[in-house]
Description:
Blueprint: E1 3-7, E2 10-12, E3 20-21, E4 23-27, E5 30-35, E6 50-53, E7 58-61, E8 63-64, H1 73-76, E9 80-81, H2 93-105, E10 115-120, H3 133-136, E11 144-148, E12 153-156, H4 158-163, E13 176-180, E14 186-192, H5 206-222, E15 226-234, H6 236-247, E16 254-259, H7 266-269, E17 279-287, H8 322-334, E18 338-343, H9 346-360, E19 372-375, H10 381-390, E20 393-396, H11 400-412, H12 414-418, H13 424-429, E21 434-436, H14 447-456, H15 473-479, H16 482-487, E22 505-508, E23 525-530, E24 533-537
Parallel strand pairs: 1-6, 2-7, 8-15, 9-10, 10-11, 15-16, 16-17, 17-18, 18-19, 19-20, 20-21
Antiparallel strand pairs: 1-4, 2-3, 4-5, 7-22, 11-12, 12-14, 13-14, 22-23, 23-24
Helix pairs in contact: 5-6, 8-9, 9-10, 14-15
Amino acid sequence: MSKRIYYNGTVLTSDEKHPFAYAVLTENGRISEVIYESIPGIEEHFPDAERFDLKGNTLIPGFVDAHSHFLSTPRELRQLNAAASPLGESDSVEELVASLKRQLSTGRFDSVPYLYARGYDESVYPDHRLPTRLDLDKVTDKPLAVTHISGHNTVFNSAALALAGITDDYQPGEDGSAGRLADGSLSGVFYENAVRDVFPKREENAEQTIREGLDEALLRYISEGVTTAQDGATDKESYRIARALADEGKFPIEVVSYLSGDAAELLDIDGTKKYSGNYRAQGYKLFLDGSPQAKTAWLSKPYHHTLKGQDDSYRGYGIYTDEQLLSLIGRALKSGWQINVHTNGDEAIEQLIRVYSKAAESVPDAAKTRPVSIHCQTVRSDQLDRIKEAGILVSFFVDHVYYWGDYHLSEILGADRASRISPLGEALKKGIRFTTHQDTPVTRQSPLFAIHNAVNRVTRSGQVLGEQYRISVLDALRAVTINSAYQLFEENTKGSIEPGKQADFVIIDRDITSIPASQIKDTLVLKTVKRDKVIFSRKQVR
């Protein structure tokens, strides 16, 4: 039967004109009708439709991923877990060493010649001490690289440094740095592009790794209600692998890539904005700075507490000169490709506004390409005004409030600047259309948790961070559905429950508009529906 009616529950549509509904009728994978009035026995009015009883649960649009690294997730599954709680068990340097040893003792990694771990986070350590090569030397004699939760610095053990031929005489380029111990020797901590000097070339079995971890990676997204995923920085090899997987029909949901680095040339050669096998390339990804919690984001004023080895004037650094960035953005605009630009610090945001505005002067209707400032953590009020004027969209990494809000307060930004990270409420008042995201695998994929953080703005320790920047549940829902679809140029086909759009739904176990805001994080995804087909169903229900 090609028709179906969803009834007997709450429907949150993400449609501003009609945010609530009572039932939804679908046909051939699309929404054919939305019923906005309560009609007793409504299912009887459509005798030719299959009945889908929501049993009092809530139907919402499928989540559209505004920014993550989908193709990195299978790789993460093959790595050691160095994360702090609740994502791991390493809440100090000592626990990190012990946890890595325990994981290696299982034998899973005995045949792996070069060990990778991801997710260490000194922001939660009691002393905020960074692990060093001396700590990692206690874990294993094999080369070992442990990447920061942000992905913007990595700690290598002595074996990894020796393999790369790195000695204490090493001097990084301007787009990276390396830490030192008290005796002047390398600490093993490398920042930004300096990491590339130590890492070996990408493993030859990258395709095997992605293929072997694909099903679990998909489950991590689909089980959280994501019906459109994103790979936010796809290199040439990953693009080739994704294209092959798509041609084989391996993607049950849509996946959108933003090509970066050596893959940029594919935008003109092989790029397409149309889906093939549920996969397409949409644009070009640029990085203008690093991470605030790694103290590599480019700020206009110094860090609250400077990075070890730097003086008190240290405020991070940029990656491109204005001239270099103008060339890159100009090329993308002239080719009609959207740009997604990693901008954490307010000085990086300033450079984006300045250079994009100049590049747009020579490209008619440049704003139609919908450029995006990704993360936009420390954006100032005056910058929001100019972002709106320039036609730049914003995607906020609002989960920073929970995971690193306390660290921003005490170490990174201080109280005044930390209180306004991801100022959603201000952006909303200014009429800026924004999205929120998880940057997976930096944090776990959970759009419901993004909604929770946007509404509550509470840190790990329970502090409210910038109460005035909270937004409503419905506005937070739109940020991960219709606004995200708009960011991907797909607002006419998905992102809200309206006639004519794809029947992409999530069924959750409570009406998030009628419960205490503190309980939103406890909401469960019961089912995920893609084009009217159930692709995930949770066994545990209320």
